[in-house]
Amino acid sequence: MKTRSALAAVALATASGAAFAHPGHESASFFTGFTHPLGGLDHLLAMLAVGLYAAHQPGTTRWMLPAGFVLAMLAGAGLGALGVALPAVEAGIAASVLVLGLLIALAARLPLAASLPLVAAFALFHGHAHHAEMGGASLVTYAAGFALATALLHGAGYAIARWMPQTRVGNAIRRVAGLVVAGVGGAMLGA
Predict the structure, then answer these.
(1) Radius of gyration of the chain measured on its C-alpha atoms
(2) Measured between alpha carbons, how far apart are the two ends of the chain, in Å?
(3) What pLDDT, on the 0 to 100 scale, is given for residue 27?
(4) What is the pTM of this model?
(5) What Å distances lie between residue 136 and 94, 126, 141, CA to CA?
(6) Residue 41 CB-density burial (10 A; 0-12 exposed, 13-18 middle, 19+ buried)
(7) Contact (CB, 8 A) for 175 and 98
(8) What pLDDT shows up at residue 150?
(9) How far, CA to CA in Å, does 8 sit from each of 2, 17, 19, 54?
(10) Which residues form the signal peptide (predicted)?
(11) Count of CB atoms situated within 10 Å of the CB of 113
């Protein structure tokens, strides 16, 4: 009986799109939100870098940094929706690329009490920028889209870092990748 109830709930949820006055806008909002982090080099590098950096951190820090980033990013979008302005949003995003790249290049292991607020502060800027690009999309579906894309980018960065061998060559490649990311961030700050 529980299986039938679950199947009925799924069927009703799937069919509920027909109840909207203008069907299709919610999926467009989700897709627009999902593609936003993928379309800009600044967002793409920062979000991959969070995963790369988190992969070489101890214990719970490995998942707390990406999760904290996504939550703070949603908070940044919420601030934007409330009309709260953040100063120097683009510079904050560029700084995130620079600093995260340097953390990877230096193989830094900051304590969670330092790394989580740092990552969360950067995420506020990313979320605020995502909201600014939202246009007429639905905030909930748009935010769900960019949150999922961000989590997937974090996961991709994490998987790449864990896939690379823990050898001198693998560590050198990671450090060079961090320097490249930092260099792009530095160029963005200088532009």
Answers:
(1) 19
(2) 62
(3) 57
(4) 0.82
(5) 26, 19, 11
(6) exposed
(7) no
(8) 97
(9) 10, 15, 17, 40
(10) 1-21
(11) 7
- Domain extents for the chain? 27-190
Question: For the chain, which residues score pLDDT lower than 70?
Answer: 1-28, 191
What is the reported pLDDT for 84?
95
Collect all residues with Cβ–Cβ distance below 8 Å to 56 and sequence separation of at least 6. 107, 109, 161, 174
How buried is 144 (Cβ within 10 angstroms: 0-12 exposed, 13-18 middle, 19+ buried)?
middle
| Alpha-carbon gap, residue 53 to 56, rounded angstroms | 6
Phi, psi of 15, rounded to the nearest 5 degrees: -80, -10
DSSP single-letter state for residue 59: T
H/E stretch holding 66 reads: helix 61-81
